[in-house]
C-alpha cells in the first residue's frame, strides 16, 4: 500500500473503470435485446421457432475462442444472455399456446363427489391417502397401479390416488412411467406417515417369511434382516394381509398397516418395524383433465434435454432467475432410447403467475420432449 493512500482511495479509479465499462455493457446489452426483438418479429412472420441451437453454438464457439483465458466464463455469460434473449422472444410470440389455453380454460376446483380409484385393498396406505384427500368418499380398489391408470384413463374413475415417493425407499418408478404413458395430470398430493406392523393369522406359528409390497419390505429391511425373516414381494401391503388371513399359511406373515391388520383380523406381532421413525410416503392424485386452482402451490413438469454441455444447468438457472424453488428432480430412462432420459421436476409456483407461465411456455417450446404435469395443492 502506498504511504498515504487508503484502500478506498486505491480502489476508486479501478471502480470508476468498472462503472464506465458496466455502463457500456448495459447499453450494448439493451441494443442486443432490441436485436432479439427484431429477430422475434421476423420469426413471427416466418412462423419459425425461437430456439436456434446451431446459431447459438456458433456464437459460443466464437466467444470461447476470442476470450482466451476467460473462454469458459465467456461461454457461461453468453449462454445466460442468449437464454434471456430467447425468454424475451417467447414472451413476444406468446409461445406455448396449448399451455396458455390450459391455464385459461381448466377448471379451478376438483369434481364434487368423485369416483376415486386406489391400488390394493381396504386398509392400504393408499386408502389412508384417499381418505385424507377425499374425505367421506369410498374408494374403489383395483389390483395394480396399471389398473388404476387404465380406469382413470378410460373414464371408469374420476381420480386415482397412487404413491410416487417414500422418504426411505425413494421413488415408485412404475408410477412415474405410467404418468407419462397415459399422459395424466397431477391434481393433488398428500404426504402420509407410514408405520408398518409385522402380522400373522391368529393361531399360526412363528413367522419365517413375510409377504408385502416391495417398497414396504425395503422400508422394514433392518428389522426383517435382524430377525432372519425371508421376504417375498406382493402386490400391496393390505392385499398381502388379506391373503395371509384367508390362507392361514403356517410360518407366513405380512408387513402392513395397523388398519390393515385390524381390517383382516390379524395378530400384530411387532409394531413400528420401519427403518426410520419419520417414514412417510407421498401420494398424488391423477386425473385425465388438468385442474388448476388459483392457490395451487406445486408445479410438476417432465422434459428431456438436448445432449449438450450445461443443458440441465442452464435450464435450472432459469428457475433460479425467477426465484422458483425446486423441490425435486428425478431422471427416468426413456423407453426404447438407450441412455436418454426424461427429467421430472417439482417446484413451488403457480401457473396463473405471468412470469412462471412464460417460463413453462418457453421451456415447452424449446425442449425436445416436454409435458406439463400439473399445478396442485398439497395436503
Ligand atoms: C436471436 C436469435 O434467437 C435465439 C437467440 C439467440 C441469441 O440471443 O443470439 C440465438 C439463437 C436463437 O436461439 C436468433 O435466432 O438469431
UniProtKB/TrEMBL annotation:
It comes from the Bacteria. InterPro entries: ACT-like_dom_sf (IPR045865), ACT_dom (IPR002912), Chor_mutase/pphenate_deHydtase (IPR008242), Chorismate_II_sf (IPR036263), CM_dom_sf (IPR036979), CM_II_prokaryot (IPR002701), Preph_deHydtase (IPR001086), Preph_deHydtase_CS (IPR018528). It is found in: Cytoplasm. It is an enzyme of class 4 (lyase). One of its GO terms (molecular function) is prephenate dehydratase activity. Residues 300-379 form the ACT domain. Catalyzes the Claisen rearrangement of chorismate to prephenate and the decarboxylation/dehydration of prephenate to phenylpyruvate. This is Bifunctional chorismate mutase/prephenate dehydratase.
